[in-house]
Design a protein that fits this description.
- By secondary structure, the chain is of the alpha/beta class.
- The chain has a single domain, classed as HUPs (Rossmann fold).
- Helix content is 49%, strand content 8%.
- It contains 12 helices and 5 strands.
- The chain has helices at residues 9-27, 40-53, 70-83, 93-102, 114-135, 145-150, 171-181, 190-194, 214-225, 231-236, 241-253, 255-258; strands at residues 31-36, 58-62, 86-89, 137-141, 163-164.
- The protein has a 5-stranded parallel β-sheet, with helices on both faces.
Amino acid sequence: MILQPNIPIEEAHSLLVSKIKAYFEGCGMKRAVVGLSGGIDSAVVFALACEALGAENVHGVLMPSGFSTSHSVKDAEDLARNCGASYDIVPIGGIYDKFIEELAPLFADGQWSVTQENIQARTRAVILMAYSNKRGALVLNTSNKSELFMGYGTLYGDLAGAMMVIADLYKLQVYELARHINREREIIPESTMTKAPSAELKPGQKDTDSLPPYEVLDPILHALHEEGRDPEEVIASGADRATVERILRLKAASAFKVMQIPPMLKVGEHPIAPEFKCL
């Protein structure tokens, strides 16, 4: 999938690195912290930050829960080692269990819902902000454009941070950028590149539980947003009507979140956020 408008991946890479560097210089800051999940998005953001700021100025925080897989923790550790950066592991299971215990009167039905998932995301944001306050490091957000359009993120949770690094890149473009980062040696672990994307907020969760596959989603979003095509035109070009209508519903239902996100690094001509939120 090409970057809009036809930006070569190496130019997008250089642009993001230079914008991270300029943002930190403008803020008078040197250090960054990133929540590492073992997934592709946090891996790319972490690698870009290490290149822009120096690995000695970037710290990773791994925050596994009872739903995190062992291979995700290993992937995050391998990434930090490959980058030559420091990291800590802060399990959130006990904190999450305490939240659920204290909030039990509010959860009378006892049923699992997105509420429990959001509590995990917001717990992780609290930990990252605590590190930020204590160590003078800015939190770098790891959400991508596909997720933002679909509302696949938690306000005051994984949508928090001082800056959104890859928010103008669709998920497929994040993979493309990851392959470019690995062009000379393995920085991002191969297993991070090949495993099915998952937020790991409940047992066996995959992104496709909530979203169309990115191979389907991203071209439709690109046609609607970057190319400005009408939904009926997109359907006429071969896209499944039910899928397009589902994407439009999710996009409309989550638009309010975009107004509350941190500033994002602009790569193409059509960022998702209002212009005043773009760097």
